[in-house]
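Researcher: Here's a chain I'd like modeled. Treat it as a single chain, no partners, no ligands.
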Amino acid sequence: MLESIILFIVGVFIGHISPRLPILMVTRAKGFNFHFPHHPEPISLSPHLTQRVMHLRVFYWLGIVFALIPLAAGYMSLVWGSASLGFGMWLSSGWSVINKLQTFVGGNPPPWTYDMAIRLQVVMNKSKQDPCCDFPEPEWQLTAVRCASCNITLDEMPRPDLGRKRSDGIIMGSIRILASDGHPIVSEQSND
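Model: Modeled as a single isolated chain. Structure tokens:
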């Protein structure tokens, strides 16, 4: 009985980690963070930031492909191997796929979207065409996009995880990412 419970927990862990591997591993590499300050410093708006949001968007959806591996392995394990390990992998990775696909029927949006990249680009363009102060320096802080010079809020968009190596270490940083799934720690203020 205890062995079955442990195998189930291991299966759930494998199924939960697999879809998040691209975001946990690829984005934390040194070469991938060359243009960005260390976490949790604000990030200046630039084409590199817009590109990063688009990369993270791709990695988010790539998680479905990574979830299919433990989903298939879990099914094979259910049929021919350890049922508890297979059920854990099948259940957890299947839930991850459903969680990502529910976006299309009105669920929680992904942490990184095309609209987010467009909003960042609009703020960059607006700060050049219609500056808020003499030396505009738009930067993406935790809770909003603000000008570093005059501290005026340019956009009320909170910052999700951007794939930088976290200051709280690899293990604690990974746990935070797994818990939040990359979403911002604060929610955006709605005008409703």
